[in-house]
Design a protein that fits this description.
The chain is α/β, with parallel strands linked by helices and 502 residues long. The chain is 33% helix and 25% strand. The protein folds into two domains: 234 residues, 3-Layer(aba) Sandwich (Rossmann fold); 239 residues, P-loop containing nucleotide triphosphate hydrolases (Rossmann fold, 3-Layer(aba) Sandwich). The protein starts with a strand and ends in an 8-residue tail after the last helix.
Length: 502
């Protein structure tokens, strides 16, 4: 189909004098997947928020939906005109059932026809070829199944345009394949899909066309077949990127910073022992559900250990809370940065200074805004955070730049050990390389890094040693240079006999 169902012309947006979108033009046709790619901070999120009616564009911007110019677009009006956005953090109702979430727009009346609602929900799931329990509470089903519910809801809205923002960030390989099949089914119904992802293999698998944003400008739009990995990355970042192994070059005696012995927190993990040395990046990998994040949260004081011992600089210690962990030099950058890391609704400055307020007081022991801003500006420059605006609301920043702000928070607290959980999830290739370099710089400065990642190339590229977890146990430990993706994955799937916990 060649029918244009969404078109933007000269789309511009400026925040406090900083231009994040500059006269961008873009269109979407019925029944196509149009991938929107670019580095974090390129303007993708802002563009989608404008199309969704959440943000207002600058004067001179034009948006056409099904040929009708959208004037003074609001979130409600955008939905009414056929636009549905499925954000990375899925905006559904966890305490309602699958059927209720799918039909939420059809159940605004005080009198609900439950039979009709269930039929509508079942019909749309049948159309998608999906089997779900209509009575299951949303909070009790997987993230992948929640994605399917969000798509089903968009279809019941009679949406003409569905925007998917990093839809596979938290999905298993089986759920990803199911999502691909659903997208192909939805296309056949004439629905256009704007697909945003940093995973280029997904883009090439699904996209009919690809548009590339860089620094707020639309730099290229063409058929997907006109691109390859190298060309697309060069267009996104404006330079050639080289991913090289970045391992510890220190040759002196090992100096243990942190050690755990036989720590247990059932049902998540048991009898875990490992150590981390100064200047070292210790990789921790395994399948989703292996207990990696729970292990990190227990070390950080978010969960209570049932057994085992913790040693910092060779001295036995007890971590009673997250605040206690921070005081003792243990810091944690969580996987879910929005729910567990960011203080949404507050500025980048507030987010950076949140755990080091004692460093930002004046002689009267009152919080000094000037000192806070000075610290924020220091890290904006050091970590190349964009936009370079200390006062910007953290919610208006891209995922990669939000992540850099969280790194700034923990670096400013002078950690001995920094645990980073999926630090490059949902982040573009350029920002990913910057974070890899940052982790290595921190390690060289003497910080012990525990890197939790499902990205095996990432683990192999920057770890010095790798621990593999399976079903709550550490089943293998290898020197990174001696490991391959296949060997690590095999251990994560099958285990390694007795493991290395003893």
């Amino acid at each position: 189909m060649d029918e244009v169902i969404l078109e933007v012309k000269n789309l511009s947006k400026t925040y406090s004098g900083i231009t994040v979108l500059n006269k961008v033009s873009f269109d979407l046709k019925a029944g196509e997947v149009h991938a929107l790619v670019g580095e974090n901070g390129a303007g993708k999120t802002t563009m989608i928020k404008i199309i969704a009616g959440v943000e207002k564009p600058d004067e001179g911007s034009e948006i056409y939906i099904n040929g009708t110019r959208a004037v003074r677009l609001t979130a409600a009006k955008s939905i009414q005109m056929g636009i549905t956005v499925i954000y990375q953090d899925i905006s559904l109702f966890p305490n309602l059932t699958v059927a209720e979430n799918i039909c939420i727009e059809k159940s605004k009346s005080h009198l609900i026809n439950w039979k009709e609602m269930r039929k509508t929900a079942q019909d749309v799931l049948d159309t998608m070829g999906v089997k779900l329990d209509l009575d299951a509470k949303l909070k009790d089903i997987s993230i992948g199944q929640q994605q399917l519910v969000a798509i089903a809801r968009a279809i019941t809205f009679k949406s003409k345009v569905i925007v998917m923002d990093e839809p596979t960030a938290a999905l298993s390989s089986g759920e990803v394949k199911m999502l691909y099949d659903i997208i192909r089914t939805v296309k056949k119904q004439g629905i256009g899909i704007i697909y945003i992802s940093h995973k280029l293999n997904e883009v090439f698998t699904l996209a009919d066309r690809i548009s590339v944003l860089r620094d707020g400008w639309m730099v290229e739009c063409d058929k997907a077949s006109s691109f390859d990995d190298k060309k697309l990355i060069n267009l996104m970042v404006g330079r050639e990127l080289r991913f090289l192994p970045m391992r510890n070059e220190e040759t002196g005696p090992e100096e243990c910073l942190f050690e755990v012995k036989h720590i247990t927190c059932e049902p998540f993990f048991r009898d875990v022992s490992f150590r981390i040395n100064k200047h070292e990046i210790l990789g921790l990998t395994g399948l989703v559900g292996a207990g990696r994040s729970e292990l990190a949260q227990a070390i950080f004081g978010m969960m209570k250990l049932q057994k085992g011992e913790i040693f910092i600089d060779g001295k036995k210690t007890e971590i009673k809370s997250s605040e206690d962990a921070i005081r003792k030099g243990i810091c944690y950058l969580p996987e879910d940065r929005r729910k567990q890391g960011l203080f949404t609704g507050h500025s980048m400055t507030c987010n950076i200074s949140a755990v080091t307020l004692h460093k930002h007081v004046n002689r009267l022991k009152l919080l000094s805004r000037t000192k806070e801003i000075k610290t924020a500006e220091e890290y904006i420059d050091k970590l190349n955070i964009r936009p370079n605006l200390p006062s910007i609301n953290i919610e208006n920043m891209s995922g990669g730049n939000q992540q850099k702000a969280l790194f700034s928070r923990w670096i400013n607290s002078s950690p001995k050990v920094l645990i980073v959980d999926e630090p490059t999830s949902g982040i573009d290739v350029g920002a990913k390389l910057e974070i890899h370099k940052l982790l290595r710089q921190l390690a060289r400065s003497g910080v012990g890094i525990i890197l939790i990642s499902s990205d095996l190339p990432e683990i192999l590229a920057i770890s010095d040693r790798i621990l593999v977890m399976r079903k709550g146990l550490i089943v293998d430990e290898v020197v990174a240079g001696a490991a391959t993706q296949e060997s690590v994955l095999e251990k994560g799937l099958m285990g390694a006999g007795g493991g290395t916990n003893g």
